[in-house]
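Bug #77: duplicate submission created two jobs. Keeping one. Sequence:
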Amino acid sequence: MSAQIDVVKIGGNIGARIDGVSLSGDLDSATLATINDALLAHKVIFFRGQDHLDDDGQLAFARSLGIPTIAHPTVTSRGDTILPIDSDYGRANSWHTDVTFVDRIPKASILRAVTLPTYGGSTTWANTVTAYENLPTSLKALTDNLWAVHTNVTDYAGTAAELVNAKGAQEYRAEFQSSYYETEHPVVRVHPETGERALLLGNFVKRFVDLGSVESAELFNVLQARIIRLENTVRWNWEAGDLAIWDNRATQHYAVADYDDQYRRLNRITLAGDVPVGVDGAQSRIVTGDASHFSDIVDPQASDRAVAV
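Kept job's structure:
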């Protein structure tokens, strides 16, 4: 019998808390459909009181929602499927969508609190669909025809350098950039399940196609500011036993590094996704790097199977 689930909206444009379910790999199809529908509607969903989950339980639950990727395309020394978001090595305090430097951007990420600081350490998400919907007509026309180059050699990998031990930061940066990836994505992607249009930007953007570095920086700041307007975001204050899932095709997120030198760790599993498609139907283009080891490309209309590239 399906669990009685309550979906509690916590933000006008993004975010909901899901009550009444104990997460596991054995949830029935109706419960899983409710969770996936809530994810599509609210972009990021939160579960309290999931203290029973360990790494194996988190992975089993993830597999019920999709096909897990390996932990990361380049950061492979800290786990096969579960990536520790560990403050000793890095703090993701920049606005980004996960792993946009490859062609096959993950569908979703599942993040579980493991060790939390006594204060600070919240995470904020922004809705990239409403950001696009609220653009003036002139900017929609521009972005509909705009492409951006994404790469893993950005400031993101070194953001933590001044905030954590230098050795750990250097090791993390070196591994993050150990293989070079560059991919051209449409700035407006069509969501493969909802058909909504979303802005695909974030801190992995290197420049816009056909624009120089100065023009790219100025235009990036204009568009990125639209995405992260406060009314377009939700901020989650983590508690022990919390788990969050976000639609990586329709959000950006930012981990707030306001907990001084305390230790913080959350464990992340990502689910394989598809190759973004622009308004004109064109798919993202690989410039450099083969991410086939990271994940298969998943048919969004048949999430229980992967299709070969």
